[in-house]
Amino acid sequence: MSVPSGSRPRRRAFGAALVVLVAWACVGRAAEPAHCTAIVLRGGAGAAEEALVAGIRDGVGHRGIALDVRAVPADETAARAAVTAALADRPCALVTVGPGPTRLAAGATKRIPIVATLVMVGSLPAQRPNLTGVSLDFPLAVQLGWLQRILPDRRIVGLLYDPAQNARTAAALTRLAVDRQLTVVERTVSEPVEIPAALEVIAQRAEVLFAIPDTLVLSRETAQALLVFSFQNRVPFVGLSDAWVKAGALYALERDYEDVGAQAAAMVTRVVGGEDPGAIPIEAPRRAVYVLNRRAAEQMKIHLDRSILERASHVYE
């Protein structure tokens, strides 16, 4: 049977197009991470952890990465066993939620990529060749920016800290404050017993008491003294978390934990795709929200703009 004139070139053109489409599809698949399982090791079961895991699950679900969420017990021996069992299953990545699981995982493997979450940068190991993550820390510039939005008339910022932990942070805060036409009044302490006297000095000038992560200054043992000082002197205290605001701090920045999970998911995708986790910088949360204590504001005669109250993620009455 004879071939109609012109059909052979059309077949050749169709064949060439088919080859191109197949090659394109193969390239597209190669760019995606291979199907594998990432194990999430979580140390808590609160609302923050639930939202974070939901964000991770949404972020990796369409990238061929399965998620296996496991609890890490509070008991140290049981926690080590849980981490060892997770490593034995050879996940393509570990996502650690909280300082405990992060510390144990980082000490147990230098091979499997780790994406750490719900940790402060200062708690992470100095050498972390297989670790990246999303910290709890907001940049100081972000914190000062929110301070000026919420308390625009407070220009003198009190800062209490342990120099062994926070000398560099305090210096950085002071530099940033100058750029924003703020003044930092600081006192250093080396023992908890020094805190009351240091607060008395700060009270002479400070219009707001600013908190930075410091295990000596901010603890269960010192919380009452800080909050009583704040109320007695009508110097609003900027806390570190929702828990501090509930206890009496005027406000605190909080994280959008589902969005933090989405950030972590993006990092998991990158390391599973072949990027070196040690070369991926630790990220700060992308989105800040804040909680307020209206009763604290009223008792200290502090006026909060209506828009500030309306935009708060939660207001304690």
Question: Care to describe what's here?
Answer:
The chain has 317 residues and is an alpha/beta fold. The protein folds into 2 domains: 36-137 and 256-287, Response regulator (Rossmann fold); 140-254 and 289-316, Rossmann fold. It has 12 helices and 12 strands. Mean pLDDT is 90; it is low at 1-34.
Structural class: alpha/beta
Rg calc: 26 Å
Percent strand equals 15-25%
Total beta strands: 12
Show unreliable segments.
1-34
In CATH, the topology of the largest domain is named Rossmann fold
Would you kindly provide a brief summary of this structure?
This protein has 317 residues and is an alpha/beta fold. It has helices at residues 7-31, 47-60, 76-88, 99-108, 140-150, 163-179, 195-203, 223-233, 242-247, 257-272, 294-299, 306-311; strands spanning 36-42, 65-71, 93-97, 114-119, 131-135, 156-161, 183-188, 208-210, 237-238, 251-255, 288-293, 314-316. The model is unreliable at 1-34 (pLDDT under 50).
